[in-house]
Specification:
Orotidine 5'-phosphate decarboxylase, 14% strand, 43% helix, alpha/beta, OMPdeCOase_dom, TIM Barrel, 8-stranded parallel barrel
């Protein structure tokens, strides 16, 4: 698929639903799958999970840190995950949470969002906490190459609240200010902008105004972290297109049996279909 990321994501959601399936080779999950905490175990885990999840979900989300922990051989496995997911028809949202300034941000952008590297994904997560303007290289490169970025706004980890709920001089919270910046970038795009936000599914309903966002929303905290379908409805309503509830460990604990893992993906996808996001 070619063209801007937003329409590509919209088409993939229409085809496969809204689930974002995480691939987190956490050491505890390798143990649970009966695998060693080695590059060989990582490879077996990640490629087996990718084979099942990328054939079912619209988006897979590898957590880069768990691959980086194994050094260069781990990065090589991540490259294979990205390639395998694409071959299976899924979009790849690489969870790297990069955020820096100037040439350093430009280098991250080249690594993850240009078409010239094996690590280039369809979208990446980025941090705006060196100033939203510091993300300009990532946003510009992503758009030029038909990719997207997801900006951390109101995350699901409890320790984020003190910063992200802090009030600015204009009376808005830091998180709302980030959402509004993204909305301005997405203005006029259709059917969905290329820049998304990360808003936890465990955020209190009504805390953020998301109606003008015009972009996708990655919603961590679904599943093992406590949020269910009813929480998604309360936080996001059913009028917002592009909501991607993310499930990682709650999915992956059903492996290594591929049939059990596939059945769990389908159960979650079916439960999310009842919400009819954006319909």
């Amino acid at each position: 698929m070619t063209g801007p990321f937003g329409p590509k994501l919209s088409a993939k959601i229409a085809e496969r639903g809204n689930l974002c399936a995480g691939i987190d080779p956490h050491p505890g999950l390798l143990d649970a799958w009966g695998l060693e905490r080695t590059v060989s175990g990582l490879e077996k885990f990640a490629l087996s999970a990718t084979e099942v999840l990328a054939a079912e979900a619209p988006v897979i989300k590898p957590q880069s840190a768990f691959f980086e922990a194994y050094g260069a051989p781990g990065i090589a496995v991540l490259e294979r995950v990205i390639a395998g997911a694409r071959e299976a028809g899924a979009l790849v949202l690489l969870d790297v949470k990069r955020g820096d300034i100037g040439s350093t941000m430009g280098a991250y952008t080249t690594a993850y969002l240009s078409g010239d590297t094996a690590l280039a994904a369809d979208a990446v997560t980025v941090s705006p906490y060196l100033g939203f303007g510091s993300l300009a290289p990532a946003i510009e490169t992503a758009r030029a190459s038909g990719r997207g970025v997801f900006v951390l706004a109101r995350t699901s980890n409890p320790e984020a609240a003190e910063l992200q709920k802090a009030l600015l001089g204009n009376g808005k919270t830091v998180a709302q200010s980030i959402v509004d910046e993204v909305a301005a970038v997405n203005a006029g795009a259709g059917p969905l902008g290329d820049v998304g936000v990360v808003v936890g599914a465990t955020v209190p309903p009504g805390e953020l105004e998301l109606g003008a966002l015009n972009g996708p929303i990655l919603a961590p905290g679904f599943g093992a972290q406590g949020a269910g379908v009813s929480d998604l409805r309360a936080v996001f309503g059913t009028g917002l297109p592009g909501v991607l509830p993310a499930s990682s460990r709650d999915l992956l604990r059903h492996g290594p049996d591929p049939r059990a893992l596939r059945e769990q993906v389908r159960r979650i996808r079916s439960s999310l279909a009842e919400l009819e996001f954006g319909q």
